[in-house]
Amino acid sequence: MAHRSKLAASFKIKRLRTIFIIYWFLLAYIIAALVWWFIALMQQNNILTEYKLQQLHANAADQQRINKIEQDKKRKTTQYIGEGVTFLLLILAGAVFIFRVVRRQFKQSQQQQNFMMAITHELKTPIAVTKLNLETLQKHKLSTDQQQRLITNTLQEANRLNDLCNNMLLASQIEAGGYKVTNEEIDLTSLVHNCIQDFIIRYPQRNIETDLQQNIFFTGDRLLLQIAINNLLDNAIKYSPRESKVAVGLRTKNNTIALLVKDEGKGIAEEEKEKVFDKFYRAGNMYTKGAKGTGLGLFLTKKIVQQHDGNIILTNNHPHGCNFVISFKES
Predict the structure, then answer these.
(1) Which residues of 118-154 are buried (b: 16+ CB within 10 A; e: fewer)?
(2) 3 state DSSP class of 178
(3) Tens-digit pLDDT profile for residues 111-160
(4) What φ, ψ does residue 150 adopt, rounded to 5°?
């Protein structure tokens, strides 16, 4: 399946290159034709002017008529130059517009194709693990500890599948304007703490440090905020080494609530810091491409933060890694 997808992607890229070659060839041909038309009109204007002057000299015409012919020549020259420049600018503007539209469509098509490949893998993996665990429980007599380990692993995969489905459905609803935000007073400290505890259970081998200020309340949508927090935690764990530390902080200062999620991964290049919040986008290095993901998490997180009139920024963690900071105005 992956080999077929790569072949299809390679074929599309070759076809696009062919289309672009034809496109630029036709554009060059049109510009060359425009230049030839301009030169031909200028030559015709010069020849016609010379003919008129010769006729006037033969008839001993006065200087006034000669000046009029020269003025007509200049007027037509200005007209041809103006028309030529206008047509050239229109052609170039249309060419640039079409090129950008086609390139944007191709980029979106590539991102959607990558998303479909990623989502297929993301959906099949927890289903396959769950099926294998259940078959093992069914066919083999296992000790209580072994059963608990399989059940725990199955629940983790079910939670992962649930998070993935929530991200997909919510992203679609938010973009379509079909999700209505429910505002309620939330104990944000408790919400962040519960999210962290869930990840500690799911990833007991990971080192997650917390620094949460108590009794921080905020008015917002509990489900959306929980998804945003989970996405940042999942992102930090996914893109950092297993032995590294993930730090989570929650503080208030100057009527601003700040949630910080810090990891010690490879980090993100400066030119990609804004792009990571785009739909389907995934950072372009081999380290991040090798990790699981669909490119929806950070996109959805930013949408949720914006719906709560907040802001999210990404900075470097020193000596390496990322800092994601969400800030809200206190309710």
Answers:
(1) bbeebeeebeebbeebeeeeeeeeeeeeeeeebeeeb
(2) coil
(3) 666 666 666 666 777 788 888 888 888 888 888 888 888 888 888 788 77
(4) -65, -40
Pick 184-329's CATH classification: 1.10.10.60, 3.40.50.970, 3.30.565.10, 3.90.180.10: 3.30.565.10
207-212/217-220 β-pairing: unpaired
- Distance, in Å, from the CA atom of 323 to the CA atom of 245, rounded to the nearest integer, reads 12
Sheet holding 322-329, edge to edge: 207-212, 245-253, 256-262, 322-329, 311-316
Give the separation between CA 69 and CA 136, rounded to whole angstroms: 99
Cα radius of gyration rounded to whole Å, the chain:
32
Whole-model pTM over 0.85 = no
Q: Please check whether residue 312 is in contact with residue 305, taking contact to mean a CB–CB distance below 8 angstroms.
A: yes
Q: Which helix (H) or strand (E) holds 51?
A: helix 2-58
